[in-house]
Amino acid sequence: MRIRSYILPVVLALLVHICVVLLLVPHWFQQKQDPRQTPRHIQATMIDLKSLATEVANQQQIAEAKEEAAQKQAEQTRQAAELEKQEQAEQARQAQEAERKQQAEAQAQKKKLEEQKQQEAQKKLEELKKLEEKNLEKQRSEEKRLKEVEDARIKEFDECIAKIKGLDITAEQKATLEALCNSKPKEVESAIKAILEKKADEAEKKKLAEEAKKKAAEKQKQEAAQKAAEAEKLKAAEAAKKKAEADKQRKAEEAKRKEAERVAAEKAAAEAKQKAELEKRRQAALEKNKQTVADFSSYVVSEISRRWIRPATARNGMQATALVVLFPSGEIDSVEIIQSSGDLGFDRSAENAVYKVGRFSRASEIDPVLFDRNLRRIKVIFRPEGLRY
Amino acid sequence: MKKWFISAFLMMMAVTARADLVVEVTQGVDAPTPIAVVPFQATGLALNEDIAQIVSDDLGRSGFFKPMNRSNMLGTPSTEEQVFFRDWRVSGNDYMVIGRVAPAANGQVQASVELYDVLKERKVWSETVTGNSNNLRDVAHYISDQVFEKLTGLKGAFSTRIVYVTAKMNTPGNFTYKLQMADSDGARPRTILQSKEPILSPAWSQDGSKLAYVSFESSRPAIYVQELATGQRQKVQTFRGLNGSPAWSPDGSRLALVLSKDGNPEVYILTLATGQLDRVTHHYGIDTEPTWAPDGQSILFTSDRAGLPQIYSLNLPTRELKRLTYEGKYNSRGRLTQDGRFLTMVHQDGSGFHIAVQDLKTNRLDILTSSSLDESPTIAPNGSIIMYATKKGGKGVLAGVSLDGRVRFTMPNGDGDVREPAWSPYLQ
């Protein structure tokens, strides 16, 4: 809630009062009433020091809380302002009421006076005049006295205010003291003293609290530092442990890797050795096979040459190729002329030369795998040399 | 999985890696092919000819075959069921011929013959030939031709004929000359012409229907052409001087001959249809013994234009002359094989006159005979045998030698001296 929101009601209240005053003005000029002493109304505010002390204590407590203090202070300020306004409004209302009552009474008195006037008008007119003069004099003296009192009071109030002004106190306390200046100026000193003492106490308390807080903070800081140190230590220990474990694991892995490498190297060496051995054996076998094939080729050529009857039509440069398929026993499975010489007699002689061998007996002595792979099918090229033509 | 694929791949490689062994045979035995011609079984017939023997002799004489001696045969099978191939293989035969002769209708005989490959144990050829008792030799020669052709790929020349001249001295200074024709084996000779004057240089026409020869019957040499079927003959040339050595062109339309009408012997070409004579040699030396190349484009002849008799070739369209023989002092009477590659001739060396053959491809000359007075070579139409005249026991005989010189034989003795043989072409 903001102060701005009270501006309109205050303006309206003032307007109402102004209107009422304006309405009453003609009446005042029409009938001149007897001066009547009206009781003087002193506007004052009742202050309970106990509650004030409590409130101050509360405020101090609140002030300890950094974040809440300002809020509560603002709230209290607001509430004080509000209370003050309410009191002002109440006073205004009471004044109006009193005024209205006075008016009513004046009217009634007027009526009565009119009647008395009618009855005693003439009789007491002189007396009244004297009395009126007397009252007027009295009223003037009274007013003078009142004015003096009022001046004294204002002076006292100003002095009180001047005392308050230099104090380093809160606005609320200042308002309270101002109110006290207004109501009981003499008690202000003691109130100031009490406030200052209280303030000193509070400052002391605050200092103590701050110290305690500081100590607590220090302690907390120390604890935190200790904790941090412990945590650090723990962390370091953990890290050391982890590092140790990592080192251990790394070493284990390294060892494992080296072992694996060693095993692999040994395996590779063994394999290489085995491979070399196999290669050597393979080469030896190949060499042996090559020799076997060469021997068998010579044997085949010899066997066929002995039986090949070169016909009269054979000529140097003729060539016929026979494909001879053998059984593993060396017997002839088939003989086929796959490339003819162009001379029937020549081709027949070639076929017959192979058939006449009947059986290549050495074939049965050869390794069956080698035989099957290299010697089962033989291409025999018949190409006569040394003929007359 | 990967290993499986590798294994499969290696197996495939192993399969594909299988290679044939290749060997080359260059040497062998230069000998005739052994064959057994088993005596034919003759049921209910008394044959005057031994067909199997004729076949066997024919094949043996060709130089290509070596027939088995009958006395060495373990059996005489006449049907396939009776043949034990192993026996014939063991006895060294590559082939065998069996046959049966049986009477046929109209007094004829039927000869069923079968040729087997002993090594493969397969039948190569079989046929039934019909003939009569008078031409059993023809049946036999036909069988020989078939066997020869089936086994060598060359057409057999056993059914061909030869002509030759015989001279029989009746009294000193008195001779009887006969132009005779016989089977290729010399059998069944018959006289074509008989004269008291010399008969020379018989020559076959290409179709085998006519003979040309030189006869002195009219006191001076004249060239005659005689139809064999009818015996009719025609004197085609009789100039003064030498008229000799007729040779038929391959197409039978022309005769090459030697005339000395212009002073010395020169080679002329006579067109039979028109009688036009064309002199093709012009040299003061002797040009004689012409023979036609198989393609009819050139003529070979003997000439001593270089001082000694040598054989020359004259290209007729271009008249280009080429000397063919250089080896030896004497080379004459050249004759070409049907393929035009081999030139046979009479070649003289230190030991006399021999039959020689020159490979025109390599110009290699080989002397085929060892006798010293060989003359008049003539070649079988299939080029397998050269027949020639020679002296044996002071008497002229016919002899034969295979082209490679491996087989030599002497023909049966005729009546008197035999000379001037001429081998017929294939007869229809």
Q: How would the global form of chain A be characterised? A: rod-shaped
Find the structural class of chain B using helix and strand composition.
Answer: mainly beta
- Average pLDDT level of chain B: 89
CA-CA gap between termini of chain A: 143 Å
Shape of chain B: globular
Could you name the CATH class of the domain at 308-382 in chain A?
Alpha Beta
Number of separate helices of chain A: 7
Number of domains of chain B: 2
Q: What is the H level of CATH, i.e. the homologous superfamily of the largest domain in chain B? A: TolB, C-terminal domain
Organism (chain B): Neptunomonas phycophila
Family (chain B): Belongs to the TolB family.
Keywords (chain B): Cell cycle, Cell division, Periplasm, Signal
Protein name (chain B): Tol-Pal system protein TolB
Explain how this protein is built.
Chain A is built from seven helices and three strands, in the order H-H-H-H-H-E-E-H-H-E. In chain A, a hairpin with a 5-residue loop joins strand 1 and strand 2 (332-339). Chain A is mainly alpha-helical and 389 residues long. Chain A is rod-shaped, with a radius of gyration of 71 Å. Chain A has a three-stranded antiparallel sheet with strand order 2-1-3. Helix content of chain A is 76%, strand content 5%. In chain A, helix 3 runs parallel beside helix 4 and helix 4 packs antiparallel against helix 5. With 428 residues, chain B is mainly beta. Chain B has two domains: 33-152, TolB, N-terminal domain (Rossmann fold), CATH 3.40.50; 161-423, Neuraminidase. In chain B, strands 2, 3, 4, 5, 6 and 7 form a six-stranded mixed sheet that branches. Chain B has a four-stranded antiparallel sheet with strand order 10-9-8-31, with no helix packed on it. Chain B has a four-stranded antiparallel sheet with strand order 11-12-13-14, with no helix packed on it. In chain B, strand 12 and strand 13 form a beta hairpin. The mean pLDDT of chain B is 89. The chains are: A mainly alpha (389), B mainly beta (428). At the A-B interface, helix 5, helix 6, helix 7 and strand 3 of A face strand 1 of B. Strand 3 of chain A pairs parallel with strand 1 (21-25) of chain B.
